[in-house]
Amino acid sequence: MSGSNPHIAIILNAGMGNMIPFFRLASVLLSNNCKVTLITGKPIVSLAEAKHLNFFLSKNPQMTHLEYQILPPEPDSKADPFFLQYNAVRRSSYLIHPLLRSATFSAIICSFLTCGTIPRFAAEIGVPCYVFSGASAKFFSFMIHLPAILKDPEIGDKKKNSSFWEVPGLEPFDMSSIPGAFLNPKHLMAVDAMVNAKACLEATGIITNNFEWLEPETFSALNSGRVLCGTLPPVLPIGPLECYEVEEDQTDCLAWLDNQPHESVVYVNFGSRTPMSSDQIREMGKGLEWSGSRFLWVLKTTIIDKDEARQEEVLGVSFLDRTKEKGLVLRKWVNQQEVLSHPSIRLFVSHCGWASLTEAAHRGVPVLVWPQFGDQRVNAEVVEKAGLGKLPRSWGFGLERLVEGEEIAAKILEIMGDGSLRSSAKKVKEEAMKATEPGGTSHCTIMKIIGS
Ligand code: UDP
Ligand code: UDP
Predict the structure, then answer these.
(1) Which of 281, 288, 276, 275 is nearest to 407 (CA)?
(2) Do you know which Pfam families this protein is assigned to (predicted)?
(3) How many domains does the chain have?
(4) Which domain holds residue 344?
(5) CA dihedral 21, 23, 26, 28 (to 10 degrees)
């Protein structure tokens, strides 16, 4: 990219976990004198996305906003609404081409999950294209191997025996950490992943909300030409991406946190779209209560936004009454970037969405990692290895089994008392800060991409 004031097109993908890092990236580009055009598809899946997008646009009026109409979703009423949306956005990617011709862009940034025809089109019009991967580098390396993995006629048996998949240049993948959907070539997720895995090879680079220190072996393998026989573009960590201004927290959780002692609170939040079953919610409640700890619990029971059931109905009035001195249960969106920065937070119980994990890494908050689906199990292994979290393997992956209150309470107490985890999480924070400050690895990469 060359010249002053580079003009960058950012093509947004669906879901808060994808949208938030893109807004962070757009903010970094704007603060480095870039012009930014944000391209979004309609309709949008959740109210949360619509609210955040509108707020972001209103705060950054200098940005251009272009919209296109997304093709109708596949008629599969049982599929996850966000997967249907990724698929529809990916199939609609050719509708974005005219928008990419409407100005002289110095670079195009799109999401790995929906990149479709964009990298090839960008190459045709001679504009550098960066594909953004919103998962750990380890999970990304699995995704780019997916076309080869799915060609293996023995894949079904390998998955059943939860054996390992050997990959050149990388540690073997433990197949039990990979959700079945990815290993079923007919599943929507696998179909999309295979298209995107091939498409991203035509990009100028893969950028990711990550920092080299967190996954050194994986970045080194990906960038040494050993993976995919040198056909992979450079994989460039540019994170953890900084916070940007979000709408003021409508809950009183920050005021509540102000009244809690230093490093005393367990914060539970399973992201924007991972619901817990009613049984698991009750066991979680017991676990928090029996641990005797203070807690802030953002409770979610539906995939899209929130349902109308009141928390008294889900948890019972007596639970809320017994724990009211120590705990705050909310069924609303909280400002997680501020919650995790609050000095009262001691432990984060997370579903291991990559955006949440990078936020915890940036603030050095230890994490009890409880992966539920998708990339989350692999992400969990990555942060455990880096010293940010602890993964209770006996809890299984996702909804494999009901984890009981006693186990949850014991694990919370064990991790809260783990001094060595607290120090290693602080080390992760130091390295994250080093990467993002001027001269740091992630900062330099962003500057190189911008061309300044
Ligand atoms: N988030 C938030 N408040 C909430 C729930 C989520 O601010 O109550 C933000 C969180 O900080 C993160 C994103 O939403 O930036 C969730 O992304 P992640 O990849 O962790 O999980 P996903 O929601 O995609 O499963
Ligand atoms: N939200 C969400 N996941 C949740 C809870 C809330 O995405 O688990 C979003 C919700 O869609 C809305 C915003 O957070 O955009 C505010 O939440 P809520 O609807 O609870 O607040 P209200 O509009 O009732 O004040």
Answers:
(1) 288
(2) UDPGT
(3) 2
(4) 253-417
(5) -70
Closest CA to 415 of 452, 374, 370: 370
Give yes or no for residue 354 CB within 6 A of ligand 1: yes
What is the whole-number distance in angstroms between the Cα of residue 350 and the centre of ligand 1? 10
Report which DSSP code applies to 234: P
pLDDT tens by residue, 299-332: 988 877 755 566 677 788 899 999 999 999 998 8
Separation of 304 CA from ligand 2 center, angstroms? Answer: 9
Look up the CATH number of the domain holding residue 293: 3.40.50.2000
ipTM: 0.89
Is the beta carbon of 300 within 6 A of some atom in ligand 2? yes
Q: What is the pLDDT of residues 218-277, one digit of tens each?
A: 999 999 987 777 789 999 999 999 888 888 877 889 999 999 999 999 999 999 888 888
Q: How far, in Å, is the centroid of ligand 1 from the Cα of 190? A: 24
48 ligand 1 Cβ < 6 A:
no
Residue 364 in domain: yes
CA–CA distance, 296 with 399 (Å, rounded to integer)? 23
Candidate from 272, 305, 337 with most ligand 1 atoms within 8 A of CB, to mutate? 272
Domain for residue 388, yes or no?
Answer: yes
Kindly report which listed range (145-154, 238-247, 351-360, 409-418) carries the lowest average pLDDT score: 145-154
pLDDT interval class at 2 (50, 70, 90)? very low
Strand 170-174, strand 164-167: pairing? antiparallel
Q: Is residue 428 part of a domain?
A: no
